[in-house]
Design brief:
single chain; 232 residues; mainly alpha
């Protein structure tokens, strides 16, 4: 793809390569991935579990439209395609990448569309905080999920990737009161809502996670609210 993968944008190897994605661009990318997963989980005649949702597998075209790639680990559930809960069946061991793979996979639990939802929740939080789930900041007793969950809602601005605002209204040298004053109340509420969705998707227990049916409409509503706030 012309713009490579999402990982290269979030974590450039050199400062020269660094290009910031705006809040809306990040929101659009998340919704593009959500649309793909909604199709795989709920609209395919045979439910499909991707098993490896991570920034390296999110490809960006010339318009920064996101495409979900690398289907090398996918699992099809044909015998359960008509079941009301296709996420309950058929495990083939640990799947995915460290930091993104659902924790239950490491304990031999069954493959699940809710495993994909865990990875998607981690992806949301990485996109908006700029931190990988394997960041050294997260020692054994912490995690990206915990880092975000404990910051919400009061301290959301402390954990956001500040480069998300550089492309819109500010230069990279702008900090302090001017930086915070550029954030409208409605925008902050939307950012809290996005990160709360990431936390809900990446809950420790699969039973506590949201499905993409629930998430897709929630995210599109948040995007509309952000756009209205910017136009106001």
């Amino acid at each position: 793809m012309p713009n490579g993968n999402l990982d290269g944008w979030l974590h450039p190897e050199t400062e020269i390569q660094k290009s910031s994605l705006t809040i809306i661009q990040r929101m659009n990318i998340i919704i593009d991935v959500a649309s793909a997963l909604h199709y795989l989980h709920h609209q395919c005649p045979t439910p499909i579990i991707h098993c490896d949702i991570k920034p390296q597998n999110i490809l960006l075209d010339e318009d920064l439209t996101a495409h979900l790639g690398d289907f090398g680990l996918v699992r099809l559930l044909p015998e359960f395609s008509n079941a009301p809960e296709p996420h309950l069946f058929s495990s083939l061991g640990v799947m995915g990448t460290i930091g993104y793979a659902a924790p239950e996979y490491g304990m031999g639990s069954k493959l699940s569309i809710l495993g994909d939802m865990y990875s998607f929740g981690i992806l949301i939080m990485e996109i908006f905080t700029g931190r990988r789930p394997t960041d050294p900041l997260f020692h054994p007793s912490s995690s990206l999920h915990h880092f975000v969950e404990t910051a919400l809602p009061e301290n959301v601005m402390e954990i956001l990737d500040k480069t998300a605002f550089h492309g819109e209204k500010m230069s990279k040298a702008t900090y302090g009161e001017e930086y915070w004053a550029s954030i409208k109340k409605e925008q902050m509420e939307c950012l809290v809502g996005i990160l709360e969705t990431g936390v809900a998707c990446s809950a420790e227990s699969p039973r506590d996670r949201l499905t993409m049916r629930q998430v897709y409409s929630k995210l599109t509503a948040i995007r509309e609210k952000i756009l209205r706030a910017e136009d106001a």
